[in-house]
Design a protein that fits this description.
Number of strands: 23
Number of helices: 15
Structural class: alpha+beta
Radius of gyration: 26 Å
Distance between the termini: 33 Å
């Protein structure tokens, strides 16, 4: 990991954003627990997504499908036969890597070294390899001919590239047998597809309509590193939008625009985002692009927008024998709807916001660490601090805090010097600190301090709720 990412990981543990899972037992690779601040950050992002995708549209509704599904679901979707990653082992370090990502990183390095022509040539070979009949062999040939070395050991001693299925298997019932095999879902989308017509009928929806879901998914990632970017248990925010065949490209472009604006609204600058066209779209897709963010580890995907055609519904119609067609009264025609999908990784979005928020400054000769979250997603919206712990100041401060907590998450802190309390709130990303001091007892005003500018002003204590609400809602609507 990069030095900056190391510092972010350290702060996450120290301040209670994210902890290694089962740490008292030595931890479990690629699994993490969200602490008090992390839970609030995650909740804010999840709810902001839900408002933008569901509440902002009168033809999109929600669903919460089960994690366990009938095993035929995954046979129909193609996951049983085709959900594989091309992996290669470094014989020296014994570490395993995704072969296509090794080549992509090699291409990035060539561009950074001022060799665009060679980078383009390797890029063309990568695209051809991903479409080759024997993809592992083609990818291995590129690695060997380009003499790509292992990132960790620097060695050039690779195994052959092999395909690994990434689904977790388990068994339902008392006896483990072939008939009892089921899977932990590797994506949330299939729960939407198999329930699509039940939801449509219950909600009285007509094409076009969408179904949104936020939930856990599980993948047996062999290469699971880089903090919470790639985990075996993760959370997805997905929406499947069902449209009439022929209109999918228009809706695809529309949802691309809406989803881009959502990330900007979370406080991510446009210069640190980009679109990335899939070199090898899934076989069922007629268009696929990712929104990528420039992490300390390089450009990586945070959300995918895909035009999935009618593949999923057609396959479930074939395997289940249930009709997956709609009848359009106005045109007297039946068709299987096409699907436009938006699929964002909640954990990756959290990591993006952590990376974007983290900064170090020097103030008055002292180092200040700040998590500059947009107020709308900040875990704590305001901190209330009595200057001293005695007398009437704590009484007034607690009353202000109680009034704020009715509408947002706040933190009351009366321990230590007010300067140290400010610093703790800076690390938590709290946009506003409200200080009750001696002047409060005289004229009923308090000091409000801005996290980013460090400017302080006095306002009536009765106006604190309105002041904090204006700061929190300054980012505008969810879209």
């Amino acid at each position: 990991m990069s030095t900056q990412l190391d510092r972010i990981v350290s702060l996450c543990k120290r301040r209670g954003f994210i902890f290694p899972s089962s740490e008292i037992y030595g931890g479990l690779g690629a699994t993490y627990d969200y602490g008090p601040l992390g839970v609030e950050l995650k909740r804010n992002v999840r709810e902001r997504w839900w408002r933008a995708v569901v509440y902002a549209h009168d033809n999109v509704v929600g669903l919460d499908a089960a994690i366990f599904m009938h095993p035929k679901v995954w046979k129909a979707s193609g996951h049983v036969d085709a959900f594989h990653d091309p992996l290669v082992d470094d014989k020296v370090s014994k570490r395993r890597y995704k072969a296509d990502q090794l080549i992509e990183h090699h291409i990035e390095k060539l561009r950074q070294r001022g060799k665009p022509a060679r980078a383009d040539a390797v890029q063309c070979r990568l695209v051809a390899a991903l479409h080759a009949d024997d993809m592992p062999k083609a990818l291995h040939a590129i690695i060997m001919e380009e003499q790509i070395r292992a990132p960790d050991s620097g060695a050039f001693d690779w195994t052959e590239v092999r395909q690994f299925n990434m689904m977790f298997e388990t068994h339902a019932g008392a006896v483990a047998s072939g008939d009892s095999r089921i899977y932990l879902r590797p994506e949330t989308a299939q729960g939407i597809f198999v329930n699509a017509f039940s939801v449509r009928d219950a909600a009285r929806l007509q094409v076009p309509f969408g179904i949104a879901q936020v939930g856990k998914a599980f993948r047996n990632e062999i290469v699971a590193r880089q903090f919470i970017f790639r985990m075996r248990e993760f959370e997805q925010m997905e929406m499947q939008f069902f449209v009439k065949p022929g209109s999918q490209q228009t809706w695809y472009e529309t949802w691309k625009k809406w989803r881009w604006q959502w990330h900007l609204g979370n406080g991510v600058p446009e210069k640190r985002l980009r679109w990335h066209v899939h070199e090898k779209p899934a076989h069922y897709a007629d268009a696929a692009e990712d929104i990528q963010y420039r992490f300390p580890i390089g450009w990586r995907e945070v959300e995918g927008i895909h035009s999935r055609t009618d593949f999923d519904l057609a396959r479930h119609q074939e395997y289940s024998g249930k009709k997956m067609q709609v009848y359009e009264q106005s045109t007297k025609e039946s068709y299987i709807p096409y699907v436009v999908e938006t699929s964002a990784g909640l954990d990756r979005t959290i990591l993006m916001l952590l990376c974007e928020a983290y900064r170090e400054e020097e103030v008055g000769g002292a180092r200040r660490v700040v998590m500059g979250f947009a107020p709308a997603v900040a875990p704590i919206k305001a901190a209330v601090l009595p200057l001293i712990r005695r007398g009437d100041m704590p009484v007034i401060a607690r009353k202000i805090n109680e009034g704020l907590r009715a509408t947002c998450n706040t933190f009351y802190d009366e321990r230590g010097s007010v300067g140290r309390r400010y610093r703790r709130m800076d690390e938590a990303g709290t946009p506003i600190c409200v200080t009750v001091d001696g002047q409060t007892l005289e004229d009923g005003t308090v000091t409000v301090r801005d996290r980013d500018t460090l400017l302080q002003e006095r306002i009536p204590a009765d106006n604190v709720l309105l002041y904090v609400s204006r700061v929190v809602n300054a980012a505008g609507p969810a879209l």
